[in-house]
Automatic annotation (TrEMBL):
Highest taxon, organism lineage: Bacteria
Membrane-traversing stretches: none
Gene of this entry: purK
Signal peptide: none
Protein name per its UniProtKB record: N5-carboxyaminoimidazole ribonucleotide synthase
Catalytic activity: 5-amino-1-(5-phospho-beta-D-ribosyl)imidazole + hydrogencarbonate + ATP = 5-carboxyamino-1-(5-phospho-D-ribosyl)imidazole + ADP + phosphate + 2 H(+)
Length: 351
């Protein structure tokens, strides 16, 4: 088939659409409300809500394969896509969109997680804080991103001042980590799994600031352990496409934070820094093509997000020939990911 459907229309969909176009595919974007940046740039826009089964049926009929760039798509209505394959599948989406389900799923496969407790009211929060201790982080079980829907809790007094949203929550003990990293893998329809080099990820206020490859020598062993978990997750889900798992590197080994059933911000460096980008390999995987080589082509790469007004500095970013500038064409808002810059380090550091 030659038409790819993408559920979601943010920058990830846009970059998937660009990779698909390079390989000769056309894309249809399914997005509720306003056309997002993906729809503006490279594809058709349906404008229907995610739970509109009739629109999903029409979308399925117009596409040869459907994928998602956003993990909060409601799962139940996706049966309306009919015979058109959904890659990766609805089960991966269902698990990755729920922090409780994903922690249980990963723990069953032998992965370590932060200590956690389900919270459904202020009495539960007190009990959770007593059992797990402070400091901790309270998160909505579903629908958070970029640190939204999270509250850091240092003391009981701070917890009392919170007005809890009327949604299922999860309280996690704060993990003391040396660094954060992600495992980014792609799995083909034939079960072939490939990994990109794991980036070290730095966050500020819950938002990814920078991803750098390679991780330190000291973290290499943790990456190897985390990759085994990544393979186990991908196989258990019979996964197709790019899958990302976020980890904390701790003294006791890698601790799983969360997963994204899709291409990931911490993999944007692969566009210039790897033989095949995460976007191209996702398209190859969902279309049943052979996967491309994931090898990093330079000694080191740094990807820095342009958040909010940082994107206004694009002219000075462009002035340095080492920079690869990506702007997503989004309307400026504080705290919004507007673009990113990738720098390739071409020479080995002096010993
Ligand atoms: P994303 O945009 O990655 O989907 P998110 O909103 O789902 O973000 P998390 O990944 O859960 O949020 O948390 C964002 C960041 O907050 C983490 O990368 C980490 O830096 C910090 N963090 C979250 N949970 C914990 C924890 N239990 N212990 C220590 N730090 C944490
Ligand atoms: Mg998340
Ligand atoms: Mg995260």
């Amino acid at each position: 088939g030659s038409t790819i459907g993408i559920l979601g229309s943010g920058q990830l969909g846009r970059m998937l659409g660009m990779a698909a176009a390079q390989l000769g595919y056309r894309c249809h974007i399914f997005a509720p409300g306003q056309p997002g940046v993906a729809a503006e740039t490279c594809a058709q826009f349906t404008g229907a809500a995610y739970h509109d089964r009739e629109a999903l049926a029409r979308f399925g009929a117009a596409c040869d394969v459907v994928t998602y760039e956003f993990e909060n798509v409601p799962v139940a209505p996706l049966t309306a896509l009919g015979d058109t394959p959904l890659r990766s599948n609805a089960r991966a989406l269902e698990i990755a969109q729920d922090r409780l389900m994903e922690k249980r799923f990963v723990a069953d496969l032998g992965g370590a997680t932060a200590p956690y407790a389900v919270v459904d009211g202020s009495a539960d929060l007190e009990a959770a804080m007593r059992r797990i201790g402070t400091p901790g982080i309270l998160k909505t079980q579903r629908e958070g991103y970029d640190g939204k829907g999270q509250w850091r809790i240092d003391t009981g007094a701070a917890a009392e001042r919170l007005s809890l949203p009327a949604k299922p929550l999860i309280y996690e003990g704060l993990v003391r980590f040396a660094a954060e990293f992600s495992v980014i893998l792609v799995r083909g329809t034939d079960g072939d799994i490939r990994f990109w080099d794991s980036p070290r990820n730095e966050h500020a206020d819950g938002i990814l600031v920078r991803s750098s490859v390679p991780v330190s020598y000291a973290m290499a062993g943790q990456v190897a352990t985390a990759r085994e978990l990544g393979s186990a997750v991908a196989q258990a889900l019979d996964y197709t496409g790019v899958l990302t798992l976020e980890f904390f590197a701790t003294d006791a080994g890698p601790v799983f934070n969360e997963m994204a059933p899709r291409v990931h911000n911490s993999g944007h460096w692969t566009i210039e820094g790897a033989r095949t980008s995460q976007f191209e390999n996702h398209i190859r995987a969902i279309c049943g093509l052979p996967l491309g080589d994931t090898t990093t082509i330079v000694p080191a790469v740094q990807m820095t997000n342009l958040v909010g007004e940082q994107a206004n500095a694009w002219a000075s970013v462009l002035a340095d020939p080492a920079n690869h500038l990506h702007l997503y064409g989004k309307t400026m808002r504080d705290g919004r990911k507007m673009g990113h810059v990738t720098r390739l380090v071409l020479e080995e550091p002096a010993a």
